[in-house]
């Protein structure tokens, strides 16, 4: 769909197309609602397309999208040569599942659920989604302006179920971005930047389950190193005689007893030791 305005794509299913299922190019003020894209993308060692391709958009909303791919990417910014402006894009309440490993770089790179690469972003949002591989936001060529390019929030980034703990949650190589209230489940990294330092990031209120497991393992096997000499007041009970836990460990109690219940998600051995 190209050079269109005020279009609604609703309850459409596309399957087995071998490059892309839906391609929006030079589209404004439009919506995709409740669409299914199954094994529509394509990939090679050079690059991969997406089940949903996006190019040069303004005020496009994508909701309740289901992507299930065995080859290429889920959602990909690909469009006009030399420029790709994506303004006020919203992707929300969707489920994007891709194969664990991509074909690019001879299969050594993780696959990508949502890629907005070399695009000029303004006022975009990705929220309330489930993805099982990387969200890639890359454009180091555009300088920082102090105006928010994108906010990624309230998503579940599950690197455990299909990727078997590999991959990483967000590749963040873009200025003026906000990443908040997301759940990162395992993966090699939570948020990673592979290029020059970025400016004006706001990263807050995210939960990293893999980090929780690492902290718990350190506590299980190095707990003696986390004690301090007992002073006048000891409100942290359970340490060795004459010792008390480091005050910084109080955050662990809040993590363990939080509604997120990380011990339920972590490895069995770690959970049993902590219990």
Helix content: 10-25%
Distance between the termini: 55 Å
* Main beta-sheet strand count, sense and barrel state: 16 strands, parallel
**How much strand content do the residues show?**
35-45%
Task: Count every beta strand, where a strand is a DSSP E run of 2 or more residues.
Answer: 26
Arithmetic mean of pLDDT: 87
Low-confidence stretches: 232-237
Radius of gyration: 22 Å
Spell out the helices and strands N to C.
EEEEEEEEEEEEEEEEEEEEEEEEHEEHH
Question: Which terms summarize this structure?
Answer:
275 residues, mainly beta, 16-stranded parallel beta sheet, 8-stranded parallel beta sheet, 3 helices, 26 strands, elongated
Describe the protein.
- The protein has 275 residues and is mainly beta.
- The chain has 2 domains: 2-205; 212-274, no CATH class.
- The protein has 3 helices and 26 strands.
- The strands form 3 sheets. The protein has a 16-stranded parallel β-sheet that branches.
Characterize this entry briefly.
This protein has 275 residues and is mainly beta. 10% of the residues lie in helices and 40% in strands.
How is the secondary structure organized here?
Layout: E1 2-5, E2 8-10, E3 13-15, E4 22-33, E5 36-38, E6 50-63, E7 66-68, E8 73-77, E9 85-87, E10 90-92, E11 95-97, E12 112-117, E13 120-122, E14 124-127, E15 130-131, E16 134-138, E17 150-153, E18 156-158, E19 168-173, E20 177-180, E21 183-185, E22 189-192, E23 202-204, E24 207-208, H1 209-222, E25 227-229, E26 243-245, H2 250-256, H3 268-274
Parallel strand pairs: 1-4, 2-4, 3-5, 4-6, 5-7, 6-8, 6-9, 6-10, 7-11, 8-12, 9-13, 10-14, 11-15, 12-16, 14-17, 15-18, 16-19, 17-20, 18-21, 19-22, 20-23, 21-24
Antiparallel strand pairs: 25-26
